[in-house]
Write a structure and sequence with these properties.
The complex is a heterodimer. Chain A is α+β, with helices and mostly antiparallel strands. In chain A, about 35% of the residues lie in helices and about 20% in strands. Chain A has 23 helices and 20 strands. In chain A, strands 2, 3, 4, 5, 10 and 16 form a six-stranded mixed beta sheet that branches. A five-stranded antiparallel beta sheet of chain A has the order 12-11-20-19-18, sandwiched between helices. Chain B has a three-stranded antiparallel beta sheet with strand order 1-2-3, with helices on one face. Classes of the chains: A alpha+beta, B mainly alpha. The interface between A and B is large, with 36 and 50 residues. Chain A: This is Penicillin-binding protein 2. Chain A: Keywords: Carboxypeptidase, Cell inner membrane, Cell membrane, Cell shape, Cell wall biogenesis/degradation, Hydrolase, Membrane, Peptidoglycan synthesis, Protease, Transmembrane, Transmembrane helix. Chain A: It is found in: Cell membrane; Membrane.
Chain lengths: ~650, ~400
C-alpha cells in the first residue's frame, strides 16, 4: 500500500489539473471574450456621410468638421491653464471640474474634455495645441445644413440607442445613425461602411501594434450622395406660406410619383439639431405636445378629407353605372335623404356631375352615394364594392413610400359597420356622410395628393417617393411600377372637366392663375376637440387639392390647413401659389401672396395652448407664434376626427 | 573510456523528458518576455547552456560521493540559508538571494536536494524503524531545520515543498496516521474557511458519534473519541482564530479568492483572474507560438516565472497543456519506477524524494495558475524562469540519474 500512495497522488493530481484546464479552455466561453476585451482594441474609421441634393442638383445637406478636445489626465504636464481656458473660452472652475471628471473615468485613458467645437471655436486652439501636453483633438463629421427648411424631410442624426445596438451588430455604442426622414430611410446608403482596425494592446491599455498584421482589418466605404425628388424652391416657398399655420402640403409629380414638396407646419430649422445644442433642443421639440413640431403632418396626420372626396364618389358612381354625365339631382339647399334627415348644402337648383363638382353640391353626391350603395341587394356587399374602388386610389393603406413614418388612414368596409351597428341593419342612408368625405374615411395629406395625381393620370399612380438618384445605384423598381385604379380611364375626362370649372366658375373662381389651367377642389372639414373635458367644435379645417396644367399635368397638390376655415380662403390660395411657383418660378399675384404669407391662425390655435415664450426663444422656431400670455392647458387633442 | 562510462546505463527516458521540458520552457519564456525586451529569455538561454557542464560534472562524480558526503552537503546548505540573514539581498520584500553583481543565487532551490540527500542518508544509515517515536522525531528534524530557515525569508512557497517528505517517510514506514492527520487537517482547514467554525465542529461531532457506535464493541473507547473530538474542535477554533486575527489581509484574500468569496478582480484577484483568462482563451489548439494576445499584452503578472503555464495554455491550447502535464506525470512515474528498483535504500529514498519534490512543485504551481490553489510562489520545474531553480532541479534529478546508472556496480 505504501508504494502506491505517491503514484496514485500523481495520477489523480494530473487528472484533476487536466479537468480544470478542460473546463477553462473548452467549456467556459466567457474567458475568450474577456481575453479579447483585455487585449484587442478596435478602432473605427468613420466614412463621411453622403450629401443630400434636391431634384435640380442643389446641395441641401453637407457635412462640417467638428472637433472634440480629448484629454489623458496622466499626461498633462505643466500647462498654462490661464491661456488654455482663454483659448477655449471656459472658466478655470470648468477646467478643474472637467479634469477631475476625466480622472474619475481613468487617468490613463482618453476622455472627451470638450465636445463638438466648430471650426471657428477650434481654430485658435489648434495653433497652440502642441503647448498643452495631455490634450489632443479628435475630428468628427457633423451635418451641415445648407438650407433652413426641410427638417421633416431630412430627419436628423443621433447616437444609436442600446436597443438597436443589441439588434444590429453593425452599430457600436457612440455610433451615429439617421433618425426620421431620409436620414433614416436611406441610412445605409448615406452612412457608408465604417472601417475597422484591430490593435493588440497591453495591460496599460496602450497599443503595441496591429493585431495579426491587420489580417482582420477593413477599409471604410464612403457614404453615397443622394438626390431627392424635392424641389428646393417649392419646398422653401411652401414652408414660408405655412408660417403661423398648422397643417401639411404635399406636392407630387403625377407622371413619376416623385414628391416635389413635403411641408409640415410648424417645423424647425434643421440646424438646431446639430452639435452641442442638439439634445437640449430636441428635448424642447419633443416636449411640445400641442404644436408637435416633430410630428410630420404631411405623412402622419389623418384628416377627414371633406369635399375633395366627392371626386371619388363621382368616379365610383360613373364606374358602377348608377349615374352618367347627364344624371340630374335637385338641390334645395340640401336634400332630405330620409324622413327627418337632411343634408345641408350651400347651393340650389338642378345639378349634373359637372356642376355638382364645380359647385361642390352635397345633395348631388349624397344622391350618387345612395345609388351606389343601393345598387346591390346587400348593403354590406355594396359597401365593400365602394370600399375597394376607393382603396385602389391608395387610401386606407401604407402606400409604400420611402419615408420611415406614415399612417394608413381609414376606409370603412362592411366589417367596420358591422362593428359600429351591431344587431341592426344599416343602409346607404345611415352612412351617407361618406359621400362628402365626412364619414368614416380619413386620409393623410400625402394620400390626398396621390389621389389628385391619380386623377391627373386618368386612372393610375406611381408609389410616391422622395429618392431620385443614388450614386451608383438603381432606384427601387417598385417606384416605377404603375398602380391602376378600378375606375376606367374614360370616366376621368368629365370629372377633370368639372374640376377645371372649380376655378372657372366654381368655389375657387377667385384663385385663377392667368395662363395656367388648374383643376382643383375645395374642401372644408368639421372637427372637434376636447378642451377641459368639454367637446368643442373648432373652426373647420381648410382643404384644397389640385393639379395643373389640365393637359399634361406636372404637379398634383394637397393642402391641409388645420382650423383654416373654408377651403377657398387659405388652402386654396396656398395651393394656387404653390402651383404658380412650381410652373412659373415667379408669382404674379403679389397681393394674394402677401396676404397669404402674413395670414396667422395663431389666435385660433391659442385655444389649444401653444409654445411658451421660453421655448420659442430658445428654439428659433420659424413659426414665430404670437407671444400671447396664454396659460397652456395640457390637453391632447385629436383634430383628425370628424363627428 | 571514461567518457563512455559517463553515459553508461543512464535512463534515457528521464533525460529526453528533461530536455523536452527545458526546451519547451524556454520557448514559453521567450514568448512571454518578448514584449518586455529586457533580456529575460537571453539570460535563461545562458542558464540552460550552463546546465550542460553542470550535468557532465554531476554524471562524472562517483555515485558513492553523494552518500558519503550527504551530511556535509546538508550542513553547507543550512549554512547558506542561515547566511541569508546576514548577507542576503532583498527583492520584493523577500530575503532569498545572494547577489554577485547582477547575478543572483537562491540557496533554497539547492536546499531541497541537500535535504533529500540527508533524509536518504539518515534512513539508510542504520536499521531504522520509523515506528519508533524517537526516529520519527529525528527524521522530522531533518526537515524542520531548512523549513525554519526558509519561512522567515519569508518564502512560504518553498517551505510548503518540504511537506511532501512526509509522503516519502510514509513510504519508508512512518505510521499512516501522520498522513491521515495531515489530510484531515487540510480538509478541516478548508471547511472552516468555507463554513462557520461551529458548523464544522457540529459535523465533526456527528461523524465521530457515528464512527463510535458503528465500530466493533471491543474497540469502543469513549475516552479516545472524546479526545479526538476535543482535538478537532481545538484545531478548528484555532484555525478560525489564526485566520481572522493572525493572518494579514493579503493572506486571507488569497484563500478567499479560491473559495469564491472575493470578487475584487482589479486588486488581489487580478493574478488569478488574468491567468484564468489567458488559459481559458487558448481553446483546443491555442493561439499559436508568439500569437497569444494576453501574453503579448503582458496581462498576467509574473508570467515568465510562476505563471509560465499560462503561456502554454494560451498559445498551445488544451493539447499543449495535456502534453506538458503528461510529460510531467510520465517523468514522475518513471522516477518512482526507477526508485523502486534501486538496490540500496539510500538511492531508493533519494529517488522518492526527487519524485516527491518535483510532484509538489508541479501540482501546486499549475493548481495555482488554474485557480484551484491559493496564490503562492512556487516555480514550475524546468519551465519557470530562473537560474537557481533550473540548476536546483537539474542537480536534484541528475544526482538520481547518476545513482540509477551506478546501481549495476553496487554490491
Amino acid at each position: 500500500m505504501r508504494k502506491v500512495l505517491l503514484p496514485s497522488l500523481i495520477i489523480i493530481a494530473a487528472c484533476l489539473l487536466l479537468l480544470r484546464i478542460f473546463y477553462l479552455q473548452i467549456i467556459d466561453d466567457s474567458l475568450k471574450l474577456k481575453s479579447d476585451n483585455n487585449a484587442i482594441k478596435i478602432k473605427y474609421d468613420y466614412p463621411e456621410r453622403g450629401y443630400i441634393y434636391d431634384r435640380n442638383g442643389k446641395l441641401l445637406v453637407a457635412n462640417q468638421p467638428s472637433y472634440d478636445i480629448m484629454v489623458i489626465p496622466r499626461d498633462i504636464k505643466n500647462i498654462d491653464t490661464l491661456e488654455f481656458c482663454q483659448l477655449l473660452n471656459i472658466t478655470k472652475e470648468d477646467f478643474l471640474e472637467k479634469i477631475a471628471k476625466a480622472k474619475v473615468y481613468s487617468p490613463r485613458l482618453p476622455s472627451v474634455f470638450l465636445p463638438q467645437l466648430n471650426k471657428m471655436e477650434f481654430a485658435a486652439f489648434q495653433e497652440k495645441i502642441r503647448k498643452f501636453e495631455g490634450f489632443y483633438f479628435q475630428k468628427r463629421s457633423l451635418r451641415d445644413y445648407q438650407v433652413n427648411f426641410g427638417a421633416n424631410i431630412f430627419g436628423f442624426i443621433t447616437q444609436v440607442n442600446e436597443k438597436l445596438i443589441a439588434k444590429n451588430p453593425y452599430y457600436n455604442s457612440g455610433d451615429l445613425i439617421g433618425k426620421q426622414g431620409v436620414e433614416e430611410s436611406y441610412e445605409e446608403v448615406l452612412r457608408g461602411i465604417k472601417g475597422v482596425k484591430y490593435f493588440q494592446k497591453d495591460k496599460f491599455n496602450r497599443e503595441i501594434g496591429s493585431f495579426k498584421e491587420g489580417k482582420y482589418d477593413t477599409i471604410a466605404v464612403q457614404g453615397e450622395d443622394i438626390n431627392l425628388t424635392i424641389d428646393a424652391e417649392l419646398q422653401k416657398y411652401g414652408e414660408e406660406l405655412m408660417i403661423n399655420k398648422r397643417g401639411g402640403i404635399v406636392a407630387i409629380e403625377p407622371k413619376t410619383g416623385e414628391i416635389l414638396a413635403l411641408v409640415t407646419a410648424p417645423s424647425y430649422d434643421p440646424a438646431i439639431l446639430v452639435g452641442r445644442q442638439r439634445s437640449k433642443n430636441y428635448t424642447l421639440l419633443y416636449r411640445d405636445s400641442i404644436a408637435k413640431p416633430l410630428f410630420d403632418r404631411s405623412l402622419l396626420a389623418e384628416y377627414a378629407p371633406g369635399s375633395p372626396f366627392k371626386i371619388l364618389t363621382g368616379l365610383v358612381g360613373l364606374q358602377e353605372g348608377v349615374i352618367n354625365e347627364q344624371t340630374t339631382f335637385m338641390c334645395h339647399h340640401g336634400f332630405s335623404y330620409a324622413p327627418g334627415r337632411f343634408m345641408k348644402c350651400h347651393g340650389f337648383g338642378p345639378h349634373q356631375l359637372h356642376n355638382g363638382i364645380a359647385l361642390s353640391c352635397n345633395a348631388y353626391f349624397g344622391n350618387v352615394y345612395l345609388r351606389i350603395i343601393g345598387k346591390y341587394a346587400s348593403t354590406p356587399y355594396a359597401v365593400d364594392v365602394w370600399s375597394n374602388h376607393v382603396k385602389s386610389f391608395g387610401l386606407g393603406q401604407f402606400m409604400g413610400y420611402d419615408l420611415p413614418t406614415g399612417k394608413k388612414g381609414k376606409v370603412p368596409t362592411s366589417k367596420t359597420y358591422k362593428k359600429m351597428y351591431p344587431g341592426w341593419g344599416y343602409s346607404g342612408k345611415t352612412i351617407v356622410s361618406n359621400s362628402i368625405g365626412q364619414g368614416e374615411v380619413v386620409m393623410t395629406p400625402i394620400q390626398l395628393a396621390n389621389m389628385m395625381a391619380t386623377v391627373a393620370n386618368e386612372g393610375y399612380y406611381y408609389t410616391p417617393h422622395i429618392i431620385r438618384k443614388i450614386k451608383g445605384e438603381k432606384i427601387d423598381p417598385k417606384f416605377t411600377k404603375k398602380h391602376y385604379t378600378t375606375i376606367d380611364k374614360k370616366y376621368f375626362a368629365p370629372m377633370i372637366s368639372g374640376l377645371f370649372d372649380v376655378y372657372n366658375m366654381g368655389t375657387a373662381s377667385g384663385l385663377r392663375v392667368e395662363g395656367i389651367d388648374i383643376c382643383g377642389k375645395t374642401g372644408t372639414a368639421e372637427n372637434f376637440a376636447k378642451i377641459g373635458g368639454k367637446r368643442v367644435q373648432l373652426e373647420d379645417h381648410s382643404i384644397f387639392v389640385a393639379f395643373a396644367p389640365k393637359d399634361n399635368p406636372k404637379i398634383a397638390i394637397a393642402v391641409m390647413i388645420e382650423n383654416g376655415g373654408y377651403g377657398a380662403t387659405i388652402a386654396g390660395p396656398i395651393a394656387s401659389l404653390m402651383i404658380e411657383k412650381y410652373l412659373r418660378h415667379k408669382i404674379t399675384r403679389t397681393d394674394l401672396e402677401k396676404r397669404t404669407l402674413e395670414r396667422s391662425l395663431q389666435s385660433r390655435y391659442a385655444i389649444l395652448g401653444g409654445l411658451s415664450d421660453v421655448v420659442l426663444k430658445e428654439m428659433r422656431i420659424k413659426d414665430s407664434i404670437a407671444k400671447s400670455k396664454i396659460i397652456v392647458p395640457k390637453v391632447k387633442i385629436d383634430t383628425t376626427k370628424r363627428n | 573510456m571514461k567518457n563512455q562510462s559517463l553515459t553508461n546505463n543512464i535512463d534515457w527516458v528521464c533525460i529526453i523528458i528533461y530536455i523536452l521540458l527545458v526546451i519547451m520552457g524556454w520557448l514559453n519564456i521567450y514568448s512571454s518576455s518578448l514584449s518586455s525586451m529586457d533580456g529575460t529569455s537571453e539570460k535563461q538561454f545562458i542558464f540552460i547552456v550552463l546546465t550542460v557542464p553542470l550535468i557532465f560534472i554531476l554524471l562524472y562524480v562517483d555515485g558513492k560521493f553523494y552518500e558519503k558526503y550527504a551530511s556535509i552537503i546538508y550542513g553547507v546548505s543550512l549554512l547558506s540559508l542561515l547566511g541569508l540573514f546576514a548577507f542576503g539581498k532583498t527583492i520584493a520584500g523577500q530575503r532569498c538571494w545572494y547577489a554577485f553583481g547582477s547575478f543572483t543565487l537562491q540557496p533554497s532551490e539547492f536546499a531541497k536536494a541537500a535535504t533529500a540527500l540527508a533524509l536518504a542518508k539518515y534512513l539508510s544509515d542504520t536499521q531504522i524503524n520509523l515506528k519508533d517515536v524517537n526516529r520519527q522525531i529525528q527524521a522530522l528534524a531533518i526537515l524542520f531545520f531548512p523549513v525554519m530557515l526558509i519561512l522567515p525569508q519569508p518564502d512560504p512557497g518553498s517551505a510548503l515543498i518540504y511537506s511532501i517528505f512526509i509522503i516519502v517517510l510514509y513510504r519508508e514506514g512512518l505510521p499512516a496516521w501522520y498522513v491521515l492527520t495531515g489530510f484531515v487537517g487540510i480538509v478541516l482547514f478548508m471547511l472552516t474557511l468555507i463554513l462557520e467554525p461551529q458548523y464544522v465542529i457540529l459535523i465533526a461531532l456527528i461523524v465521530i458519534v457515528l464512527v463510535h457506535f458503528k465500530s466493533r464493541l471491543g474497540d469502543r473507547n469513549i475516552f479516545l473519541s472524546g479526545i479526538i473530538f476535543a482535538l478537532i474542535s481545538g484545531f478548528v477554533l484555532s484555525v478560525s482564530y489564526v485566520f481572522t486575527n493572525v493572518f494579514k489581509q493579503h493572506h486571507r484574500d488569497r484563500f478567499n479568492i479560491l473559495l469564491g468569496k472575493s470578487v475584487d478582480m482589479k486588486g488581489i484577484g487580478y493574478n488569478t483572474n488574468q491567468s484564468e483568462i489567458a488559459i481559458g482563451s487558448g481553446g483546443w489548439f491555442g493561439k499559436g507560438f508568439l500569437e497569444g494576445t494576453q501574453t503579448k499584452g503582458g496581462f498576467v503578472p509574473e508570467q515568465h516565472t510562476d505563471y509560465i503555464f499560462t503561456t502554454v495554455g494560451e498559445e498551445w491550447g488544451f493539447l499543449g497543456s495535456l502534453f506538458v502535464i503528461a510529460l510531467f506525470a510520465g517523468l514522475l512515474l518513471r522516477i518512482i519506477y526507477l526508485a523502486e528498483r534501486q538496490k540500496t535504500k539510500f538511492s531508493r529514498v533519494y529517488g522518492y524524494c526527487v519524485a516527491g519534490v518535483l510532484f509538489i512543485h508541479f501540482f501546486v504551481n499549475i493548481a495555482m495558475v488554474v485557480g484551484v490553489f491559493p496564490t503562492i510562489g512556487v516555480p514550475l520545474p524546468f519551465f519557470s524562469y530562473g537560474g537557481s531553480g533550473l540548476w536546483g532541479f537539474t542537480i536534484l534529478l541528475f544526482i538520481f540519474i547518476k545513482m540509477d546508472a551506478n546501481k549495476v556496480n553496487e554490491w
